[in-house]
Amino acid sequence: MAKRALICGVGGQDGAYLARLLLEKGYVVSGTSRDAQGNRFHNLTRLGVREDVKTISMDPEDFRSVLVAVKKTVPDEVYFLSGQSSVGLSFEEPVETIQSIALGTLNLLEACRMTDRAFRLYSAGSSECFGDTGGVPAAEGTRFCPRSPYAVAKASAFWLVNNYREAYNLFACTGVLFNHESPLRPERFVTQKIIKTVQRITTKSRERLKLGKLDISRDWGWAPEYVDAMWRMLQQSSADDYVIATGKTHSLKDFVSMAFGAVGLAWQDYVDEDTELYRPTDLLVSRADPSKAFAELGWKVTYGLDDIVNRMIQERL
To answer: Rounded distance, CA 158 to CA 5, Å?
Structure first.
């Protein structure tokens, strides 16, 4: 019999790519949104899988809603990708951020504990939990030091998963994902802001690109490869947590330079650093050690940052 998967937050970047991957593997895929009838699921349509995914409404912050969704879909695997996903926005909406991530994770863990047919649970973690490591690559044992409401929420969710796995012997794990991009990234993310502005400038727009700190550095990967890591985590004989990243760090200035260079332009002619776009707290350098995922999951990274930027630029053009 085909495996059944429930993707909470199927309309987002990761949810859409994961749905496509699981369908290719022969899964029966269901996906949730707070309002499935009102959501047009543009990302699923862009990937050509909208008609193959059964969508249902679920409010992650409402336990009854979560339990109903689980009982309706009877999943073998549940991927919790829901919740407010912007670090910057979390400073403006801290309550919504923490509730949607931490409470949503708790409700799914409780549903798993109380359901007769136990499912395997994947929870989306974040490299933001590590905070500033002083440039030292973060691995699974690196201490958390969250510096935003978003990071606090993700850290709370991580420890909830860890606690339920130990206390109730649930197959529940967290993928601590570093930054990962694709053409499906929402426009509020800085990478998509850069790509869209470059595209408009190629059509003779006279605008300038305003950014915050250009010297911040991140480990950027390709989103379709990262959802493969999520799936691999749930195929292991025992549940564990993994850092998912490329192991290579680049500055935002590098990203900007590659984006403008892809269309034959010098970025210095079009970019301004705006102090009003600085966050209350921000990480200067984010580095990762994904060696455990490489060794135990058999997961590989094939896209470098230049490949990612070029793919996003070509999609936009």
So the answer is: 21
Q: Which of 30, 90, 100, 126 is the catalytic position?
A: 126
Helix 149-168, helix 104-114: angle, nearest 10: 10
4-180+222-244: CATH superfamily: NAD(P)-binding Rossmann-like Domain (3.40.50.720)
How far apart, in Å, are the Cα atoms of 231 and each of 18, 111, 124, 185?
Answer: 8, 20, 12, 20
**Residue 150 is a catalytic residue:** yes
pLDDT 10s digits, 7-38: 999 999 999 999 999 999 999 999 999 999 89
pLDDT single digits (tens) 238-264: 999 999 999 999 999 999 999 999 999
Which of 17, 79, 150, 226 is catalytic? The answer is: 150
Beta strand 209-211 with 28-33 is unpaired
What are 70-113's pLDDT values in tens digits?
999 999 999 999 988 888 889 899 999 999 999 999 999 999 99
For the question of residue 127 being annotated catalytic, the response is no
Domain covering 186-218+248-287+299-316, topology:
UDP-galactose 4-epimerase; domain 1 (3.90.25)
Phi-psi region of 237 (alpha: psi -120 to 50; beta: other; left: phi over 0): alpha
291 catalytic residue (yes or no): no
